[in-house]
Design goal:
About 30% of the residues lie in helices and about 15% in strands. By secondary structure, it is of the alpha+beta class.
Length: about 375
C-alpha cells in the first residue's frame, strides 16, 4: 500500500518544488470545466502540439497559501500509475508576480476528449449498447480496485469525474476530495456530490469506508442503463426518501450500526418500505440486476467491493465488454456549449417513473 503522506513520498512533490516551468509553453484554448478548487482549460503544448488539460489554481484567492486539496490531489495522482487513472504531466506557474503571490499554478493533465456526464447529455447518443456499458463499468471497477488497494478513497465518484480517451479508455480523475484511508478513523462529512452520496454519508457517518465509492458506482451503473440520474435530489432528506423508496428502509437487525449514526433519529423513515430494486428493474438481465443490487446495499459492510465486482458473472456472460469506440467518435462532450447550458439540461432531467425495457437484438436499454 502506498502512503502518500510519508516524508519520503510527499517531499518529492512539495509545493516549494512545483511550478518550475511556465504556462507560456502552453496555449490555452477554452474553459472546459471546473474542479474542486480551480477551473479547467483545454490547452496545447506549443512545442509538441499535444493537447492537455490545465487545472488553474489562483493563489491570490487562498490567503493561507497553497490549497490543501490541491496538494492532496497532486501528491496522490503523481504517485498512482494506472491506465484507468488520469495522468499528471507537470505543474507550471503563470508569469505574474510570484513575490506578492499574485500568480497562478496550473496542474497539467493529459487531455481526454470526453467526460461521461457530457456523453450522457450528448444528442448523438440515444442509449448505450450493453457491451459498452460493461466496458465502462469494468474499467471503472478496475481503476477503483487499484485506487482502493493503494489505500485511497476517491470521495467524489460521479460521471463528470470519469473521462474517456478517443479510443474509449475510461480514466478516473479529479482527486481533489480524495484522501488516504486509515481504517477506523474519523473523516470529513458531506463528501461526494449528493446524487451519488451513499446513505451512511447522508445519515452523518464520519467513520465511513471506501464503500462510499462503490455506492457511487452503483448509481453510475443505473445511470448508464437509464441514461438519467438515479437519485436526482438536491437535499439530504429528499435524497434519502428516494433511496428508501427504491432500496427499502434500513433494517436495524441487518445494519446494526445505523442507529448510532448522527442523523438517523432525525431522518429515520416514518414508515417501513420494502426493497424494490429487483421489482423496479425486472426487465434488466438477471446478471446486471444482481450486480446492481450488490452495489446499492444500504449496509456499507455488505456492499460489493471493486475487486469482487470484477469477478461478477455480469462481465463473463455475453455480450462481452468492448471498448466503446463508437460513442467517442463524436464531437468532444466538453464542448457541447456553455457550462450554463449543460447545467440547465441537467436540471430538467428527471428520473422516469415508468420501467424500461430491453431490446435483446441490439443490447440497448430504452425507456417505455
Amino acid at each position: 500500500m502506498i502512503n502518500v503522506f510519508e516524508n519520503n513520498s510527499i517531499s518529492m512533490f512539495h509545493p516549494s518544488s512545483w511550478g518550475a516551468g511556465s504556462i507560456d509553453k502552453y496555449q490555452i484554448i477554452k474553459k472546459i470545466g471546473k474542479g474542486v478548487y480551480g477551473e479547467v482549460y483545454k490547452g496545447i503544448c506549443k512545442q509538441t502540439g499535444k493537447k492537455v488539460a490545465l487545472k488553474k489554481i489562483n493563489l491570490k484567492l487562498y490567503s493561507e497559501g497553497f490549497p490543501h486539496t490541491a496538494i492532496r490531489e497532486i501528491t496522490i495522482v503523481k504517485i498512482l500509475n494506472h491506465e484507468n487513472v488520469v495522468k499528471l504531466f507537470e505543474i507550471v506557474k503563470s508569469s505574474d508576480n510570484v513575490i506578492s503571490k499574485n500568480y497562478s499554478i496550473y496542474i497539467v493533465f493529459e487531455y481526454l476528449k470526453h467526460d461521461l456526464s457530457g456523453l450522457m447529455l450528448s444528442p448523438y447518443i440515444q442509449a448505450f449498447a450493453l457491451p459498452h456499458i460493461k466496458s465502462l463499468l469494468l474499467q471503472l471497477c478496475t481503476g477503483l480496485a487499484y485506487i482502493h488497494e493503494n489505500g485511497i478513497i476517491h470521495r467524489d465518484i460521479k460521471t463528470s469525474n470519469l473521462f474517456l480517451s478517443k479510443i474509449g479508455l475510461l480514466k478516473i480523475g479529479d482527486f481533489g476530495l480524495a484522501r488516504q484511508y486509515y481504517g477506523s478513523s474519523t473523516y470529513t462529512k458531506n463528501m461526494v456530490t449528493i446524487s451519488y452520496r451513499a446513505p451512511e454519508l447522508l445519515l452523518g457517518d464520519s467513520n465511513y469506508t471506501n464503500a462510499i465509492d462503490m455506492w457511487s458506482v452503483g448509481c453510475i451503473f443505473a445511470e448508464l442503463l437509464l441514461k438519467v440520474t438515479l437519485f436526482p435530489e438536491e437535499t439530504d432528506i429528499g435524497q434519502l426518501e428516494l433511496i428508501w423508496e427504491l432500496c427499502g428502509t434500513p433494517d436495524v437487525n441487518k445494519w446494526k450500526s445505523v442507529e448510532k449514526l448522527e442523523l438517523y433519529q432525525k431522518y429515520r423513515p416514518k414508515k417501513s418500505k420494502p426493497r424494490k430494486i429487483k421489482k423496479t428493474f425486472a426487465k434488466l438481465p438477471k446478471d446486471a440486476l444482481n450486480l446492481l443490487d450488490k452495489f446499492l446495499k444500504l449496509n456499507p459492510s455488505k456492499r460489493i467491493t471493486a475487486k469482487k465486482a470484477l469477478k461478477h458473472q455480469f462481465f463473463k456472460n455475453p455480450p462481452f465488454p468492448s471498448l466503446p469506440k463508437s460513442i467517442v467518435n463524436y464531437p468532444s462532450s466538453h464542448e457541447m456549449g456553455s457550462l450554463e447550458i449543460r447545467k440547465s439540461i441537467l436540471e430538467n432531467i428527471k428520473m422516469p417513473k415508468k420501467r424500461f425495457r430491453t431490446n435483446q437484438s441490439d443490447g440497448l436499454f430504452e425507456l417505455k
